[in-house]
Amino acid sequence: MEKQSVLAKDQQFISDALKLRFHPMTVSKGKGCYLFDENGRSFLDLTAGWAVANIGYGQESIAEKLKEQYAKLSFTTQLSAPSQTMVDLAEKLTQIVPGDFSKKVWFGHSGSDANDLISKLVPAASGRPKMIAFMGAYHGQTMGALSLSGHSAQAKFEGRGNVVKLPYPNPYRPFSGINEQLTEQTLHFMNEVFATICPPEETAGIIIEAIQSDGGVVLPPADFLSALRKICDQHGIYLIIDEVKVGMGRTGKWFAFEHSPVIPDAVVLGKSLGGGLPISAVVGREEILDSVTAGHMFTTSGNPLCTAAALETIRLIEEQGLITQAQTNGDVFMEGLLSLQKKYSFIGEVRGKGLALGVEIVTDRSKKTPAPEITAAICYRAYELGMLIYYVGIYGNVLEITPPLTISREEIAKALHILDQAFHDVESGNVNWDKVRQFAGWA
Length: 443
Ligand SMILES: Cc1ncc(COP(=O)(O)O)c(C=O)c1O
Prior knowledge:
Blueprint: H1 3-13, E1 29-31, E2 34-36, E3 42-45, H2 48-51, H3 60-72, H4 84-96, E4 103-108, H5 111-126, E5 130-134, H6 143-148, E6 163-166, H7 182-195, E7 203-209, H8 224-235, E8 238-242, E9 266-269, E10 280-285, H9 286-289, H10 304-319, H11 322-343, E11 347-353, E12 356-364, E13 369-370, H12 372-384, E14 387-388, E15 390-392, E16 398-401, H13 409-427, H14 433-436
Parallel strand pairs: 3-14, 5-6, 5-7, 7-8, 8-9
Antiparallel strand pairs: 1-2, 2-3, 4-10, 9-10, 11-12, 12-13, 12-16, 15-16
The structure holds pyridoxal-5'-phosphate.
């Protein structure tokens, strides 16, 4: 089918509720770090489809495993009869998620349904009704996950009243305007919350992203997660870390929280876990995961195909040394972006860890005024030049770089070259605003 015909049918038949579009891309094929449209044009993919394709596209061994698994057992509902791949995957996940305590695993289809489990089971396990989450957080679209989220894109929906949001400590945009002692300031804010609307003895859990991704690739101060852990321990509050986007090796460790000396009570996984197949998981303390029987069930959860794909994905990550590669290649990418920052005054900050990188675009470096239109134009121009990149952030002004972990040095050099060209073109006004404005992004 021609690309134009796919786009026309997309417009005619696909719900806008499912659309987060930055340019008129369609995809017919994928290999390695490249996606191809129906016209055969290749695009270097810096998105990994929102951090899903960590192992790249078209891994032959996954195709073989899926064929083998489908022929042997295409489906059985794990709710009522477990099969080998599900229990093997659960066992493997309890091994790679740190924590010297009895762990159990739950499986779902998306980061959203996994965070919905947190919203139900953490209060159930603790017998306390309230949760603390963070402004700017993106935990998903279903009602429980939505209630835990604090992203501007979700503020248009109703949530639940039992979740209190704290400012996420953002060193580039500190909520008090002062970057020093940001951890202390945030904890001070939390104490105010404890003393008023959310007493610790009523608080079941705190959920946080180790790197706030859709919120703008924001890294908290290095001591923040351990300070949070200490508070949780003091008050018997569970600490939940959402690793849906940056987990599974992207930051140079299995999980982004492992850059801090912190052990969460539960870890939420999704996106890249299945190497492209839909699967999510919560790995955590037995007392949380067993707090309700038959309490968060989806008929096709943990199905043989998705769990077989996840097992093979983990095997590939280990075999190909992709976690170390994410760290070393991430450093190279970061260095290149920092050089570009010297050249373009609209780059306010470059930040990230491993291959979870963000470039914050501002109109004015000293005032840090967010520049969402320039950001959208850069994404569009990069697309025209043959590269896919999306933007995130509560102001919609952070370019997000989350390529497959398999990206090579040559591909990184090519990506930096295209970015340089896109930055140059946008800076010099070479932008077709009519085309750019056809795409709503996160609006
Ligand atoms: C940190 C985080 N948690 C949860 C989700 C929701 O995942 P899904 O879109 O698979 O429901 C996302 C999606 O972007 C995410 O980034």
